[in-house]
Design brief:
Blueprint lengths: L2 H55 L7 H14 L17 H8 L1
Helix pairs in contact: 2-3
């Protein structure tokens, strides 16, 4: 084999190894970022669920439309608490008549 062919083959092997290692690192970095985002979203959803269940637990019997309105208003008030995300900011308060009309 001539020196030129050996050098070319070595360069091709070296370039392919470098691209392979770089792509593995890029895929790993991308996966770790996506995993961290999904874990943060899952923690946020879990915290929201826990707070909602704690709030709903305070209402023992849902006998009156006012109970539902009270819970919705308390959830809306949670959105204004400092240091917490505001998932209920877009929710709107309903009057007892509107709740009753929607339930029937």
């Amino acid at each position: 084999m001539k020196f030129r062919l050996k050098t070319t083959l070595c360069m091709v092997c070296l370039v392919s190894l470098l691209f392979g290692a770089g792509s593995c690192a890029l895929i790993s970095f991308s996966f770790q970022n996506a995993l961290e985002r999904e874990q943060a979203a899952a923690r946020s959803a879990y915290a929201l669920l826990v707070r909602t269940l704690q709030l709903v637990e305070t209402v023992e019997v849902w006998s009156q439309p006012q109970d539902v309105v009270q819970v919705l208003q308390q959830l809306s008030a949670q959105a204004t608490s400092p240091g917490r995300p505001s998932p209920w900011r877009q929710s709107r308060s309903f009057s007892p008549k509107e709740v009753y009309r929607m339930a029937s």
